[in-house]
Amino acid sequence: MKDKEDAVYELIKFGVKCRLAGGHPVFKTRYIREFPGVLAVCYGASDEVKSELFEVPEELRLKLRETHEDWRSLVREYPDLVEKALKEVKVENPVPV
């Protein structure tokens, strides 16, 4: 399993890609039996950004559950990782974020 910062960065990259594609990222923490992580879903841009399973530490999964699975909690807590992801992530037809 990845360490917490690596796991957070992977989720942030997914979220940035989703937002650049015009979607809204959500990290589902429930209903994933037997998997130690989250299901990342990109609502509104799922044609370009497919859902993915991410293995994350239990403390991160619980934190996302507490924040109602919303990626903005990660953005507020890790702005430096968001900036790094914005430089790295590319999509075909980005929309302004």
What this model shows, in words?
By secondary structure, the protein is of the alpha+beta class. It is 43% helix and 16% strand. It contains four helices and three strands; from the N terminus they run H-E-E-E-H-H-H. The protein has helices at residues 4-20, 58-66, 72-77, 79-88, and strands at 24-28, 37-43, 52-55. It has a three-stranded antiparallel sheet. A hairpin with an 8-residue loop joins strand 2 and strand 3 (52-55). Helix 1 (4-20) crosses helix 4. The longest helix has 17 residues, at 4-20. It starts with a helix and ends in a 9-residue tail after the last helix. The model has no long low-confidence stretch (mean pLDDT 87).
Question: What's this entry about, in short?
Answer:
It is built from four helices and three strands; from the N terminus they run H-E-E-E-H-H-H. It has helices at residues 4-20, 58-66, 72-77, 79-88; strands spanning 24-28, 37-43, 52-55.
- Could you spell the SSE succession in H and E letters? HEEEHHH
Low-confidence stretches: none
Please count the helical segments. 4
Shape category: globular
Task: Determine the strand fraction and express it as a percent band.
Answer: 15-25%
How are the strands of the largest sheet arranged?
1-2-3
Main sheet properties: 3 strands, antiparallel
Bin the helical content.
Answer: 40-55%
